[in-house]
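Researcher: Good morning. I'm working through a list of sequences from a screen, and I'd like to move beyond sequence-only analysis. For each chain I'm collecting a predicted structure so we can compare shapes side by side. This is the next one on the list. No need for commentary yet; just the structure.
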Amino acid sequence: MRILYITQFFDATRGGGEVVFYSIAKHLAEKGHKVFVIRHKIHGENSREKLSPNLKVYSVNPCLEYKGGLPSTMNQNLLYILNAVRLGLKVIREENIDVIHANNYAPVFVGIILSRLTGRPIIITIHDVAFTNGLVFWKQWMKQFNAPSFLQLVSYVGELLTMKLPVDAIHTVSETSKKDILKVQKKAHVFVIPNGLDPTIYNTDNSEVRYDDYVVYIGRCVFYKNLNNVLKAMKKIIEKNPKFKLIVIGDGPVRPLWEKLAIELGVGDNVIFKGYVPDNEKINILKNAAALVLPSVWEGFGLVILEAWALKKPVIVSRVPPLTDIVEHEKDGFHVHPFNPNDWAEFLETLLSNKSLAREMGEAGYSKLANKFVLQVTVQKLEDLYMQIIRRGNV
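Model: Good morning. Structure tokens for this chain:
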């Protein structure tokens, strides 16, 4: 097959949805498919790893400074759409593309325009649905980027349109997201194909895995990630274990607020904000942690859960779907009330004081990953969906 991916970011480390697209595209290229990617041009990303000969990546203006989220201005998104459509038409014509697959938000509009102009089938990925949280969510999202108020409404309506416009298929990553999509578009052809990970790249069999007195957060520094409640829990933990640390991997607009809060709470010396780090450094940090924390109040899936399990780490997640569907309470992790710092402190202390339990839960997570969330299975299911769309013209 000859597949065209449309995405704003295409990266191995920045953002769960973007990492998923990166992994799938790379894996399909390694299987012999011809894969073409159109993405935003990102400032400072000149040197990249050697990719498969079957994978070609195109970058379009405007050139962005990555700030932990999708582009927040109207001009950036409109210019991306215009430039991606122009380039996409050329790629489809010259490379005889069979199917278009667009990531959520602005790339959806690019993919639909290209599909209508060329007659190529289109599948879109919607990782999660903010629309069901109401306009208040978009107000908070745009506020953290200091975006003008009218963009709150534009973003709200824009997300609605991505689910309303006709496409051949919608791919999503959890039953929770599927239900949210169907609330908006009851007639949508929605296929749930969960995220997958290749555990072999983490080399857990050849590396000593420790459970030291620190936990890790991996993700964007944005408001709905809710890390402030973990920071509040730390004061209680440090009273019993002064050496305890929280390592934060990732960046975004609320990082300065979290850094300030940590200082105000008196735990600044115990919180290490690393920003974005290379994959090998991320693996080394996570490999020796007691656990991963994911305090988000809203997620489509939570790819970092699989990363933690690949290194045999238990995960502590907010008690919200789909996190509670993925993580089994007291088996491979814990479910915690997202806004109760005492709950976070209690379950963190449980794992810190009982390293054998942490190991046992981490190994249970590794088993679940190997049985249910392997990247090769995800890719095969997508491959089958592409073939179904190409052969039938629709689903």
